[in-house]
Amino acid sequence: MKRPWAGYARFDAAGKAAAVLMRLADLVWPPLSPLSGRAVSEPGLLDPEDWAAIRFLAPPWCDVCGVPFPYPSGAGMICPACTARAPVFDRARAAFVYEPASRALALGLKHAGRTDGLDAFGRWMARAGAECLSGADALIPVPLHPRRLRQRRFNQSLLLANAVSQVSGLPVAPHVLQRVRATPSQGGMSAKGRVRNMAGAFAVRKGREGEIAGARLVIIDDVHTTGATLNACARTLKRAGAAQVRAITLARVVKPVNLIK
Fold first, then answer.
1. What count of Cα atoms within 13 Å lies in the side-chain half-sphere of residue 28?
2. What pLDDT, in 10s, does the model give residues 167-194?
3. CB 75 within 8 A of CB 122
4. How far is CA 175 from the centre of its chain?
5. Planar angle of CA 227, 232, 233, nearest 5 degrees
6. Is position 190 within any domain?
7. Is there a domain that residue 232 lies in?
8. Is the dihedral of CA 120, 159, 217, 135 positive or negative?
9. Is 128 in the same domain as 218?
10. What Pfam families does the record tag this protein with (predicted)?
11. Burial profile 144-183: b = 16 or more Cβ within 10 angstroms, e = fewer
C-alpha cells in the first residue's frame, strides 16, 4: 500500500530558512497580536485582553461533532443533531467558537493571507483535536477549486494542515483529494442549501486510491459551519476505502444545544 506522505511532513530546509528569516524580521518589526494589533512577545500570540475574548472549545462536548454542552454530560454523550442524523465523518473537533470576537482570526487568514498566527493555530487545533489525531495516518486539507486557488494564491486549509503537522508530526497529504466543481460561496445558504452546494464537489485524484484504502485520515479546514463540506469530503474518502475519517477545524459555529438524557 503506497502512501508517499512523508515528503509533506515538517522538517524541510525551506521551512527552516523561513523560520530564521521570520526571527530576523521580528527584530525589525515587533510582533503584534493577530486580533487587536497590540504588541506581543512572539508572532501569533494574543495579548491578555484578546485571549479572554476568545471562547476556546473543550469538554464537555458531543462525542461525535464536538459541539459544546452547557454542563457536564458524561463520557460518550452525543448531541441531539448527531443522534437524529449521524454525520458522515466519524468525529470532529474545533479550536474555538466562530463569533464576533474570534472571526477576525479566521478571516484574516482566509481573505487577507495573514499567517503570523499559524503556529498558535496549529497548537490550538492539535490540542482540541487530540482524539482525532490519535492513531491517524495523515492530514487531508480541504482543497480549493483551481480557479479559486489562482485567485487567492494559497489554500488556508493547507496552511492550517501544515501547522497541525508541525505539532503532531503527522504528514500532510495535499494531493489526494481534489475539488472538481467550482462551488459558489456558501455564505447565507441554509443547511440544506450547503449540502446541495457540496454534492459532487470533491473527488479522489486518479491513481491515489491505493493511498486511501484502509487509512485513518483527518480532514483539516478553517471553519465548521453546518458540516456540509466536512461530510462531502468524508463521503468521498470513505467511498475510496478510508477506514476512518475525522476532522479538525480552526473554528466552528455553535448554536445552543438542549441535551437529551
1. 5
2. 999 999 999 999 888 675 666 666 776 7
3. no
4. 16
5. 100
6. yes
7. yes
8. negative
9. yes
10. Pribosyltran
11. beeeeeeeeeebbbbbbbbbbbbbbebbbbbebbbbeeeb
